[in-house]
Design goal:
- The structure holds two protein chains of two kinds.
- Chain A is of the alpha/beta class.
- Chain A has five helices and four strands; from the N terminus they run βαβαβαβαα.
- A four-stranded parallel beta sheet of chain A has the order 2-1-3-4, with helices on both faces.
- The termini of chain A are far apart.
- Helices cover 31% and strands 13% of the residues of chain B.
- The longest helix of chain B has 15 residues.
- Classes of the chains: A alpha/beta, B alpha/beta.
Chain lengths: 144, 307
């Protein structure tokens, strides 16, 4: 039996690789958990860490950011810059005790299978952690 | 005092139009930043172990006719100036850096907690000891948290460097205690601290690196957080700032001292600085020509956190 609580996960997918990878997963009828909400971005390098923080603020239990493999960026170096930002944010969240909620991956346009695996592992990790401590509290203020 | 002589000479010779320094505050142990413009005022220029304010912040508030200014710079002020020069916020030729060797700044709150009605004349710092009412105590246990983990007490870029060299005491890492806790307890600690935050933005306003005309915290288009001091909005504010300060924070601790609630907010920035140091071998404020870690990359950057 599936647990009652299902995590909400926001996925930022780069237009050139991971979004196409997700598309391939869909076209190939590969099954993966339906917990992700996809936001298409031009490049993983365009994902400001503030986007990730805002997703958590708005009630996401987890965030996935996915881009092209290193060296394959459509814009040549966007994912290299992204990697540095992700590393710092990842370590910072880990330090705060919120590790395991924000995930990063490289998925190319031909890796539909891999995309499904990544999503499954992210969903499993976030499901393990339970609801985000930022959304548990009932707060009077909604979307700014 | 050689600092006063140097400052007076600079003003009298017209090398600079003002000296950004410290003068005595109106309460004991308080000092206030002050722009000295007349050589007669230089009598009031002081440098004591209570001059905690980061003067680099005040470069953005100078009067327009103050084209070139001399800044009294401890190690952390000096590093802040280097980052500001790196980011083209201030030009080297518009600055005269009056470097001072810093003995470490004494935490006023610790003194006030321990002794009641302590007068400024009852406290003096001699080398590695702090003498209070005739009794000597080790200075290191009364230093500001940022000073206890300081690596460079003197500025690295300067025009003159004054004062006597003091040995750097062993670093006390305020982070290692937290790092030893299990993640759940760490989050409990930060959630408790964040919940106390009233979002007055004093930490941001005291930060020499937070010079943006419009801060993401107050931006409406796009909007990242609500101005209400709820846990999740406070979380976005402090983490967003920590990300913006990655590779730029010089660990001066100005944010923490400005906080009216005493939230140890600098720990976040120290943690980020540690990550940057460890993974990108970069320390903020060391070299004007260096590239900040987020404007460059290496093909073999660590990617252990990426699936």
């Amino acid at each position: 039996m599936r647990p009652l609580w299902e995590p909400k996960i926001v996925a930022f997918l780069c237009h050139w690789c991971s979004y196409a990878g997700a598309d391939l997963a869909g076209v190939s009828r590969i099954q993966y958990p339906p917990n992700i909400r996809v936001i298409r971005v031009p490049c993983s390098g365009s994902v400001d860490p503030l986007y990730i923080l805002k997703a958590l603020r708005e009630g996401a239990d987890g965030v996935l950011v996915s881009g092209c493999h290193p060296g394959d960026c459509h814009y040549l170096s966007g994912n290299y810059f992204a990697r540095r930002k992700f590393l710092v944010l990842h370590e910072l969240l880990e330090f705060l005790g919120l590790g395991g909620r924000v995930h990063f991956s490289w998925v190319s346009a031909s890796e539909g299978e891999r995309f499904a695996r990544v999503v499954a592992s992210v969903v499993a990790a976030v499901q393990n952690l339970g609801p985000s401590p930022l959304v548990k509290e009932q707060e009077p203020y909604g979307t700014p | 005092m050689e600092l006063r002589d140097a400052a007076r000479k600079l003003l009298e010779e017209g090398t600079v139009q003002g000296i950004l320094g410290y003068r005595r505050g109106s309460l004991p142990f308080r000092t206030r930043p002050y722009l000295f413009r007349n050589p007669e005022d230089i009598e009031d220029l002081i440098f004591t172990p209570f001059c905690t304010v980061n003067l680099a912040r005040y470069l953005f508030h100078l009067p327009r006719d103050c084209r070139k200014v001399a800044v009294v710079a401890k190690g952390c002020d000096g590093r802040s100036l280097v980052v500001l020069m790196q980011e083209n916020q201030v030009r080297r030729e518009d600055l005269y850096i009056l470097g001072v060797r810093c003995p470490g700044m004494v935490d006023r709150r610790k003194l006030e907690e321990r002794w009641e009605r302590l007068g400024e004349e009852e406290v003096c710092v001699a080398g590695e000891t702090l003498v209070v009412r005739g009794v000597a105590y080790p200075l290191s246990s009364f230093l500001e948290p940022s000073c206890r983990r300081c690596r460079h007490r003197s500025p690295l870029v300067y025009d003159v460097l004054l004062g006597e060299e003091a040995p750097l005491p062993p670093r006390e890492d305020v982070l290692s205690e937290l790092r030893c806790l299990p993640p759940g307890e760490r989050w409990a600690f930060f959630a408790r601290e964040f919940s106390r935050c009233i979002r007055c933005y004093a930490c941001r306003n005291a930060c020499p690196m937070c010079y943006c005309k419009e801060c993401f915290a107050e931006s409406h288009m796009p909007s990242f957080l609500h101005p209400s001091p709820t846990l999740r909005d406070t979380f976005v504010f402090h983490l967003g700032r920590a990300m913006h300060l990655a590779g730029r924070c010089v660990a001066c601790g100005a944010c923490e001292r400005a906080c009216p609630l005493g939230i140890p907010i600098a720990t976040l920035f120290f943690a980020v600085a540690e990550t940057v140091r460890e993974h990108f071998a970069f320390e903020a404020g060391m070299d004007v020509a260096a590239l900040a870690p987020f404007v460059t990359y290496r093909e073999d950057d660590p990617d252990a956190c990426i699936q």
